[in-house]
Amino acid sequence: MASHRRPKQPSRARVTVLTTAAAAAVVMSSQAANAAPSEKPSKDEVKAKVDKLYERAEQATEKYNGAKEKQEKLQKEISTLQDNVAKGQQELNDLRDGLGSMASAQYRSGGIDPSVQLFLSADPDDYLDKASTLDQLSAQQVEGLKKIQEKQRELAQQRSEAAEKLKDLSSTRAELGKKKKEVQGKLASAQKLLNSLTAAEKAQLADEQSRATRASERDALSVNVPPGSGRAAAAFAAAQSKLGTPYVYGATGPSSFDCSGLTSWAYAQAGVGIPRTSEAQTGAGTKIYSVDQLKVGDLVFFFNDLHHVGLYAGNGQIIHAPRTGTVVRYESMNTIGGPFMFGVRV
Q1: pLDDT at 103
Q2: For 30-34, 211-215, 279-283, which range has the lowest pLDDT when averaged over its residues?
Q3: Residue 308 in contact with residue 259, Cβ under 8 Å?
């Protein structure tokens, strides 16, 4: 006979859990349906983000420049040390050969001093430290041994210095690679943002930048501000000759520049050597904290960490290499994006 037992009913607790979950799912579905799609950032928002990325890229660029300059300096110092070691080793060999010839002559004339014979097969330091040995040598032999000892110590010191600089060079190269990667990452992020703009938006940005550059150029040329020294005038003229030249990070001219690359190149054309990086260039002369006291050709520094530099052009304008995607141009000091810190009269 078939069973007529009633099926087991779900517990009240289980029903409550299922009901709550279903209700939550309905609410979430409703919210998702009613949520507005994420809005594409506006042209101005993209520009603000890109400008910030470019600023950070320039900060990294100046650190890259410093590491590159240090690397080049270390390579020169190591090369000089290695040349000196090679020359010193030849001088040491010549000194030993001379003392050996002296010993050979003694042998032919009736015998060789035991101390000299011992020296020729070992280090002379042990013998020079013993007065009894010195008593057995001629004055000429003593002088030869002293020269050899001094040369050995000199070579040991130079080899030690070269080894330390090679270690420093290795860490500097690692830092250089890290900074280069950082710069490239910032620039790639900026380019990705720019690529998100429509063709019309890109054209609008380019037009705004072009109009701002023309306005700055008119302002800079509208007032005849006398330059400082002849060197400053020559440096400013050199920078003017590069208006329109593209910005490239790490570049020092003459076909492309970054900010400190332009200023160091310009002063080099005036016969004045200044450091490579913007931070180091702050020590190239007398600091000037008032814009009103600046003269054409003075170096001008921006941002709290001094990562941007240009040349004062008069009437609150500068000539500078702004950032990737731009060219050497005039620009108002008020639109640099960071505060004016001070000027430097080279």
Answers
A1: 56
A2: 30-34
A3: yes
* Contacts (Cβ under 8 Å, ≥6 apart) of 92: 148, 151, 152, 155
d(CA 1, CA 139): 134
Rounded (10°) CA dihedral 257, 260, 264, 269 = 40
- Whole-angstrom Cα distance, residue 10 to residue 240? 87
Strands 340-345 and 299-302: antiparallel
User: Which residue is it, tokens 């072009």?
Assistant: 210
Is 308 a residue of the active site?
yes
State pLDDT tens for residues 151-166: 888 888 989 999 999 9
Retrieve residue 208's tokens.
């705004």
Catalytic residue among 60, 220, 259, 321: 259
CA distance 20 to 27: 11
Q: Is 259 a catalytic residue?
A: yes
Residue reference for tokens 């101390």: 115
Which has more confidence, 102 or 42? Answer: 42
Nearest to 61 by CA among 271, 273, 262: 262
Residue 171 CA to chain centroid, in angstroms? Answer: 13
Structure tokens given for 130: 């013993």
As given in the structure block, the two tokens for residue 60 are: 């990294």
Catalytic site residue from 70, 186, 320, 329: 320
Average pLDDT, the chain: 81
Whether residue 211 contacts residue 308, with contact meaning beta carbons closer than 8 Å, is answered with: no
pLDDT at 98 over 80: no
Is residue 298 a contact partner of residue 232, using CB atoms and an 8 Å limit?
A: yes
Q: Cα separation of 315 and 146, whole Å?
A: 69
pLDDT at 154: 85
> What confidence score (pLDDT) does residue 281 get?
97
Catalytic residue, candidates 307, 308, 323, 329: 308
User: Residue 158, Cα to own-chain centre: how many angstroms?
Assistant: 28
| Residue 40 CB neighbour total at 10 angstroms | 11
